[in-house]
Amino acid sequence: MSGAALAVVVVVVFLLALYLLQRYGDLRRQQRMVLLGTLLSWYLCFLIVFILPLDVSTTIYKQCILDNANHPAPVTQARHTNQTNSRSSVYPTVSLPKVCEEPWSYIPDGILPVLWRVVYWTSQFLTWLLLPFMQSYSRSGSFSRVGKIKTALIENAIYYGTYLLIFISLLVYVAAHPQWQLTWRELQTIGITAANTWGLFLLVLLLGYGLVEIPRSYWLSSSHGYLLAKTYFKAAKMATEKASAEENLADVMEEVAGVHESVKYNHCLRKCVDTIITKCPTEYQEEMGRNVESSCGEHNALPTKRGLNKLHKKVISAVQRHGQTQVQWSILLDQAFHLEDVAESQSSPVRHFNHSFPSVRHHSWIYRFIYTPTVEWYWECVFRQGFYRLLAVLLCLLSATVVWSECTFFSTHPVLSLFAVFVQMAEKQHNYICIEMACFVSILFLCVCVYSTVFRIRVFNYYYLVPHHQTDAYSLQFSGMLFCRLTPPLCLNFLGLIHMDSAISHQDRIQTSYTSIMGSMHVLYFISDGFYIYYPMLVLLLCFATFYSLGSRCLNLLGFHQYITDDHLTSDLVDEGRELIRRERRLKQKAEDGENRRWAWRERYGVQGATGRTRAGYIQLKDNQNSPVTEINNSVIPFIRRDEEEEEQRCLLQDNSSDERSPNRRSTGGRYRSLSPSRTGIFDDVR
């Protein structure tokens, strides 16, 4: 098994990173360099986390060999005594060191140091140099590669200058101490220490939030009433964001239309205008073409090249944000409908789960043979609540273990860190599988607490990871930067929790290959003996702040609405979201009923040439225009559509909200409305 475990981990981690990138990014439409940089940064960070337990078990095995090599005499004499007289022994059997068995995942010497150097320095190059440059490059509105590179360099000049100033300050500090010699190794250690200090500062903040929020979210998610109320709250917020994104897109498209009319086809800037128009939605491109043909020769002021760059950037951002809100709104509606179906199934005497609007996936073989409506009813109505609460209790125990260990890991005599106790107990028994499992579960839980917070946080519209292929390039690269900066200090903190870092535990034992690459932190003793030991204790205060939702309450006071159960504004938003979901359910039910009536007419009169559409409405029919029944259908369907349109108009007047309307119309209240159907082919890959 030598090296086989390492190869399996490398492949599995790559597949995990690729799956996450496919879920959040768009592999077909986004730039290849953006996807490659994000994939590489995620892959390297996950690789560190998964290989570190193998490094720990290999180091413990080497320590066992070293301990046995330092006590050769008792072992030899004990074996001779046991051969001559099995009933007596000169030396006590307790003092005999046990035979060191090679771990099943043992990695040969020389592999891990090279691997850690490549992984660590590549990730640091990505997070501090390449990804910030690619962020500015992807957001630039320039129309050429040279222009994008120039913009990226200008935007990152202050960014790189700050890092250079910090590094020079550390060099001056080290040079002020004559007992230290500035070798290349020490310069590397200074740079690594500076990067890990920045990462540890952010790591503790994210960890303190995740240690409380993850167990609490699972406990609260066991209640369908809580989930439904929170979904209503999200619907009210998402409706506002959706209307704002639609209005912003309409404003930007009006500006593009003005530029399109003012810049003629023989102008030198026409190529830039055509590039901007290709980034606009299809319906707006068609509308601009009709407006140009019917224009009366009105001339607007000609834009400048810099103005077109800004407009190009605004178009990309507005279209991306509009697409995100549309997809999120659709997903949120499906979640709300499902939770309402669960509430109805719980009160139903029939143990059979009924979906109000079955989707295509409900007709797959998994739902027909394995996850049947009966199995789904038992899971949603019986077992789900107990399973989530049991999982929440286990996660709560892990969180308490992490908090206790973070506050006591500096004590080596006695050993107070629970993670160190578990590892040392397994080390005495030479149980390498238990060592690796304990390390893997511990570091995996730490990563889940930190990484889940990275996936949840939202910095206005600049950083927001949206699933279903809707995350923009800037957010993908920003997440890669955060992962590369958080993972090394997280791993060092974990090694300190299990007393495998001599800079913290001050023990004379073999260091892991990962710690040897990090270098000796004693070069900057005020960081290794102060900040690295006492700053992680702050996680206790952050856990209390998260438990009492102090951060959410502060954001709520600043106008960023958060879901707080005892807040009046939250109750109002829940009621508003309930009405929105009720209206959307009514509109969707009308559309389904209209499709069913049309299907019934076609089935009754035997329309030929149809591709077939089931009563659930998943396969579209194509009318045969040569059929004698066409006239009947054409005379009946308009009445159905007229009734539907009149009822829809009455609903719109009652709800005073926006649905699907034309891209160039606005309501009297100034809200953007669109009566045209949504684009096809843009979000076809969303499920």
UniProtKB/TrEMBL annotation:
<dbReference type="Pfam" id="PF04791">
    <property type="entry name" value="LMBR1"/>
</dbReference>
<protein>
    <recommendedName>
        <fullName>LMBR1 domain-containing protein 2</fullName>
    </recommendedName>
</protein>
<feature type="transmembrane region" description="Helical">
    <location>
        <begin position="387"/>
        <end position="404"/>
    </location>
</feature>
<dbReference type="InterPro" id="IPR006876">
    <property type="entry name" value="LMBR1-like_membr_prot"/>
</dbReference>
<feature type="transmembrane region" description="Helical">
    <location>
        <begin position="118"/>
        <end position="137"/>
    </location>
</feature>
<feature type="region of interest" description="Disordered">
    <location>
        <begin position="648"/>
        <end position="687"/>
    </location>
</feature>
<keyword id="KW-0472">Membrane</keyword>
<feature type="transmembrane region" description="Helical">
    <location>
        <begin position="33"/>
        <end position="52"/>
    </location>
</feature>
<comment type="similarity">
    <text>Belongs to the LIMR family.</text>
</comment>
<feature type="transmembrane region" description="Helical">
    <location>
        <begin position="533"/>
        <end position="551"/>
    </location>
</feature>
<keyword id="KW-1133">Transmembrane helix</keyword>
<feature type="transmembrane region" description="Helical">
    <location>
        <begin position="6"/>
        <end position="21"/>
    </location>
</feature>
<keyword id="KW-0812">Transmembrane</keyword>
<feature type="transmembrane region" description="Helical">
    <location>
        <begin position="157"/>
        <end position="176"/>
    </location>
</feature>
<dbReference type="GO" id="GO:0071875">
    <property type="term" value="P:adrenergic receptor signaling pathway"/>
</dbReference>
<dbReference type="GO" id="GO:0016020">
    <property type="term" value="C:membrane"/>
</dbReference>
<feature type="transmembrane region" description="Helical">
    <location>
        <begin position="433"/>
        <end position="454"/>
    </location>
</feature>
<dbReference type="InterPro" id="IPR051584">
    <property type="entry name" value="GPCR-associated_LMBR1"/>
</dbReference>
<feature type="transmembrane region" description="Helical">
    <location>
        <begin position="188"/>
        <end position="212"/>
    </location>
</feature>
